[in-house]
User: Fold this.
Amino acid sequence: MAACDPVSFSGITPSVFETLKGELARKGFSIEGTSGVINGPFGISIQYSWDEATQTLHTEVLEKSFFVSCGQIYSQLSETIDKFTA
Assistant:
């Protein structure tokens, strides 16, 4: 298990954040509230904090399987976010 450098995403409005929570839940990640730690498949654990005032979502992968790279995780997260912010 290894951690990844933090990554932040901008343009996360309240409606985008709510939609994102639903989309991530379908992928196995349950998000409660605006900050915390979520655990998902493949041993992935992600710390997150959404700042409504700046519309920024801060994320940091705390744990992951060596089968999955940091780049793959953040790429999937970015692609999911881009669906709702583009």
Notes: The chain has a mean pLDDT of 90. The first strand starts at residue 7 and ends at 10. Residues 7-85 form a domain with the TATA-Binding Protein fold (CATH 3.30.310).
